[in-house]
Known about the structure:
Layout: H1 2-7, E1 16-18, H2 28-37, E2 44-46, H3 51-55, E3 63-67, E4 73-78, H4 83-99, E5 126-129, E6 134-139, E7 144-149, E8 154-158, E9 168-169, E10 181-184, E11 187-192, E12 197-202, E13 207-212, E14 221-227, E15 230-235, E16 240-245, E17 250-255, E18 265-266, E19 275-281, E20 284-289, E21 294-299, E22 302-307, E23 319-320, E24 331-335, E25 338-343, E26 348-353, E27 358-363, E28 373-374, E29 383-388, E30 392-397, E31 402-407, E32 412-415
Parallel strand pairs: 1-2
Antiparallel strand pairs: 3-4, 5-6, 6-7, 7-8, 9-13, 10-11, 11-12, 12-13, 14-15, 15-16, 16-17, 18-22, 19-20, 20-21, 21-22, 23-27, 24-25, 25-26, 26-27, 28-32, 29-30, 30-31, 31-32
Amino acid sequence: MRKLERKYGDELAVVGVHSAKFDAERATESVQNAVRRYRIEHPVINDSGFAVWQSFAVRAWPTLMFLDPRGRVIGKHEGEFDLDALDGVIGQMIDEFRSNGLLDPAPLPEIRESEAAGPLRYPGKILADEPSGRLFVSDSNNDRVLVLDLDGGPIAEIGESATGFEDGAARAARFNQPQGLELLGNDLFVADTGNHALRRVDLDSLDVRTVVGSDGGLRSPWDLTLHNNSIYIAMAGAHQIWRLDLESSSAVPFAGNGGESLRDGATANSMLAQPSGVAFFDDRLYFVDSETSAVRYVDGDRVETLVGIGLFEFGDIDGTGDDVRLQHPIGIAAGPAGLFIADTYNNKIKTVDPASRGVATVAGDGETGLVDGPFGKARFSEPSGLSVGSDRIWVADTNNHVIRILDLTNHSVATLELAGP
């Protein structure tokens, strides 16, 4: 849609209608944060009561309704669309309405959402490397990656803090809303989500190079994890997990057939739904499947589900197996302290026991906010990424624009104060 808006800026007016699937998405504040985070430039209606949905007889996400300049419905499309085909249809419509004198190219009034104050803007993923004393943060909406010490002190800034797709020296390189991070020696791999690319940062020279670009088939890569000289990529846009062989630099699908659903079985025939976090634990690949609110794993050549039962089953219920309900988890991480998830729309950090299929809340009372203190009283706002250390968990608290630290010894949450940049 963004490409079409920019191409037909004087002729095409886009209005988004947000009819929420998840409970957490109904709040206007959540919608406003999503508009800012995804840099949506058109007006968005919060259709929390499904009034607009029902008035247009909508049946599926997404649905496109086409209106002529008089406001009359002239077409409808359900599901994902092919950009080139839609571009052609809109171009024909514009030519017809222009020839009939119906188009008014005058700009529409704009009200822009205010940007967040502070050094971070919607940080997405985070990676702590305790042996080297470094913390890597995807400062997603500042289009950069920060390298800090574990106390929040600055080490390096990678990216020009301007949207783009440029290789080169640290402050000349450009990213587009980077997310997942992985470290191999002194090379930092970055899932450059908005550019549909995988980038590599030489942490000695701070030089940035593209490993796989959009022509390599990547679609919204969201998270990365390393295992046996391969990088596994949570491909949220393709509903798949991909594997990059670091020797050949070739990236190929590893799990998921591209359909959006929760279907276990052989990796090539399985179906995933917006995988957004990946992690290895005990030599098994685990991932969070955001749209099915599930934690799943790949064992050999099969995909299996730990918790989660379908696209429209979600909630906030700890427990075991099929009784568990999560709500759009985006982050997963493993460490000496175990396997943890960011249960994003429930504003909680939880632990997962693969053996028992048990899930329990570690921190967060479930309400949206920015509150430090004991685990049970702490509050987050859509935490999306986490990294597990020996006795601490670092969390990218996305909508609060901060990094939080969970102390597993004292069972308390604190906000990391950044000394810069």
